[in-house]
Amino acid sequence: MDFLETLGWIGNIVLSIGVIPQVYKTWRSHDVSSFSWSFLLMWSSGVILVFIYIAGENIMKGDFQWPLWLNYLINILGTIYLVYAKIRYSGEGEKDQSA
Questions:
Q1: How confident is the model at residue 32 (pLDDT cuts 50, 70, 90)?
Q2: Which end of the chain is more exposed for a tag (fewer CB within 10 A), N or C?
């Protein structure tokens, strides 16, 4: 593994781990009030589109950049959960107040 590949692994591991505390906090608290729909939709669209680009390029060239795959797959899973949580928990507080 050369120096640049090592940097790629370190950077992508840090980026991958970065989504985990937010997912955990959201899972525990069910608090999604700080997430705007525009942020979630732009972030999830961006992550998915870049992953498709990386996967397509890697498959065509036969040269896989595993650090990028790791980063984007973890971020896609985290994003899917956060979008789900936003849908699931957004109205919960409003329901409790109206009862």
A1: very high
A2: C
